[in-house]
């Protein structure tokens, strides 16, 4: 048996704290009975409803996905474009992406049905490193990229300090390949950061999240995370 608020968080209803507020507000029923106490525990067979809408308990699952370019980080798309869930038709659980990658960005994306896990990994206060490799216009140098170390202003907000490495330069084509390590997840953040310092992104790939990488996978491939890998992500997210 699990605490009701934990089950609600796992099912993606809300964070555990918000789920507690929903319970205390009398908006949750278990097997038709209103629950307002936080100590209640439930079984997988119990019928839980929030504002009259049932939630479905599933065993949590966790996948590492190599998202190809030109795929939407969503479960569906009103323009009928390819979405990440198109690659998981054999997975019976109703999974969703943890955060997002831009349509034209490839790389590592986590998929799960565990809302609490997703909230933990995407919350700004949890500093989990994300490693990106970008092909950019221009000849990048340490000096030119130096402002990224202190954070730069994008749309009125300063980014957290980033780490970087110039992996290669092609003077004939006027391009460079740069590795950038950040722990935030703002919209188009890597592209915007590199553009501000003068290096528009031509191609972008996320290669690592925490201790996870894409070794052994091709675009469109996925694999289930081990229990150890899931635990490591929880440890990284909960570091002070």
Automatic annotation (TrEMBL):
<dbReference type="InterPro" id="IPR036986">
    <property type="entry name" value="S4_RNA-bd_sf"/>
</dbReference>
<dbReference type="GO" id="GO:0160139">
    <property type="term" value="F:23S rRNA pseudouridine(2605) synthase activity"/>
</dbReference>
<dbReference type="InterPro" id="IPR006145">
    <property type="entry name" value="PsdUridine_synth_RsuA/RluA"/>
</dbReference>
<dbReference type="InterPro" id="IPR002942">
    <property type="entry name" value="S4_RNA-bd"/>
</dbReference>
<keyword id="KW-0694">RNA-binding</keyword>
<dbReference type="InterPro" id="IPR042092">
    <property type="entry name" value="PsdUridine_s_RsuA/RluB/E/F_cat"/>
</dbReference>
<protein>
    <recommendedName>
        <fullName>Pseudouridine synthase</fullName>
        <ecNumber>5.4.99.-</ecNumber>
    </recommendedName>
</protein>
<dbReference type="Pfam" id="PF00849">
    <property type="entry name" value="PseudoU_synth_2"/>
</dbReference>
<dbReference type="InterPro" id="IPR020103">
    <property type="entry name" value="PsdUridine_synth_cat_dom_sf"/>
</dbReference>
<comment type="similarity">
    <text>Belongs to the pseudouridine synthase RsuA family.</text>
</comment>
<feature type="domain" description="RNA-binding S4">
    <location>
        <begin position="2"/>
        <end position="60"/>
    </location>
</feature>
<dbReference type="InterPro" id="IPR018496">
    <property type="entry name" value="PsdUridine_synth_RsuA/RluB_CS"/>
</dbReference>
<dbReference type="InterPro" id="IPR020094">
    <property type="entry name" value="TruA/RsuA/RluB/E/F_N"/>
</dbReference>
<dbReference type="Pfam" id="PF01479">
    <property type="entry name" value="S4"/>
</dbReference>
<dbReference type="InterPro" id="IPR050343">
    <property type="entry name" value="RsuA_PseudoU_synthase"/>
</dbReference>
<keyword id="KW-0413">Isomerase</keyword>
<dbReference type="InterPro" id="IPR000748">
    <property type="entry name" value="PsdUridine_synth_RsuA/RluB/E/F"/>
</dbReference>
């Amino acid at each position: 048996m699990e605490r009701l608020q934990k089950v609600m968080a796992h099912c993606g209803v809300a964070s555990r704290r918000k789920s507690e507020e929903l319970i205390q507000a009398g908006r949750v029923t278990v097997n038709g009975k209103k629950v307002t106490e936080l100590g209640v525990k439930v079984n997988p067979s119990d019928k839980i409803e929030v504002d009259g809408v049932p939630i479905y308990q599933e065993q949590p699952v966790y996948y590492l996905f190599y998202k190809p370019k030109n795929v939407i980080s969503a479960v569906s798309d009103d323009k009928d474009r390819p979405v990440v869930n198109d690659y998981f038709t054999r997975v019976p659980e109703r999974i969703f992406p943890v955060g997002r990658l831009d349509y034209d960005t490839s790389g590592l994306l986590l998929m799960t049905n565990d809302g609490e896990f997703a909230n933990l990994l995407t919350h700004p206060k949890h500093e989990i490193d994300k490693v990106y490799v970008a092909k950019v216009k221009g000849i990048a140098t340490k000096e030119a990229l130096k402002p990224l170390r202190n954070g730069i202003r994008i749309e009125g907000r300063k980014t957290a300090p980033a780490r970087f490495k110039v992996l290669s330069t092609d003077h004939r084509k006027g391009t460079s390949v740069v590795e950038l390590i950040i722990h935030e997840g703002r919209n188009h953040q890597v592209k915007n950061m590199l553009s501000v310092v003068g290096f528009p992104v031509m191609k972008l790939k996320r290669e690592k999240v925490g201790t996870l990488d894409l070794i052994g996978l091709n675009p469109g491939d996925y694999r289930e995370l081990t229990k150890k890998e899931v635990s490591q992500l929880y440890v990284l997210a909960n570091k002070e």
